[in-house]
Amino acid sequence: MDSNLLRSYFATVYELPSENGVLRVSLDGEIVKDIATLPELLRRDFAVLTAYNPRSMLLPRRVNDTRHQVLRDLLVYGCYRVEHCVGYDEEPEGVWREPAWLVHGIDRKEAIDFGRTFRQNTIVYCQGARPELIVTDPTCDDIGKTFQGHWRVRS
């Protein structure tokens, strides 16, 4: 995977819904010695999935919205609790924002399969308070290759 693309994935800010309001996080934090200090949501197992812009190809909004709704419907039919979230570039000149789904309790392999099915370069998966960036597009790297991150809670 291209190192610039990998850096941008780790710096992406995610706005995740939590019991205490919106939680802003990224994967570029320091090692957390005591996971009990993390917000409760980040200590649960979940994935962040999207169907927007497969393989980084910009699609018309209507196409992206339709793909994203199909992804949500499949997740809901699979009995997952799904909530809207968003990932974006926080750089001052950044204009990239992408809707995503926070999928509670999904199995890691199934999350990878959804990423592959919807042609995403990567997905975010969290298990045991440890976030991973997982490759789901074989043109980027080996499917399932993992880049370990650490939560950074942003204000």
Q: Which structural class do you get from the secondary structure elements? A: alpha+beta
Give the SSE order as H and E letters. HEEEHEEHEEEE
Rg over C-alpha atoms, rounded to the nearest angstrom: 15 Å
- Spatial order of the strands in the main sheet? 8-7-6-3-5-4-1-2-9
Percent in strands? 25-35%
Q: Averaging pLDDT over every residue, what do you get?
A: 95
Report low-confidence residues grouped into runs of 5 or more.
Answer: none
Domain count = 1
Number of helices: 3
State the total count of DSSP E strands.
9
Structure overview:
The structure is a single chain. The protein has 155 residues and is α+β, with helices and mostly antiparallel strands. It has one domain. Helices cover 23% and strands 32% of the residues. The chain contains three helices and nine strands. A nine-stranded antiparallel beta sheet has the order 8-7-6-3-5-4-1-2-9. The longest helix has 17 residues, at 61-77. The chain starts with a helix and ends with a strand. 28% of the residues are buried. The model has no long low-confidence stretch (mean pLDDT 95).
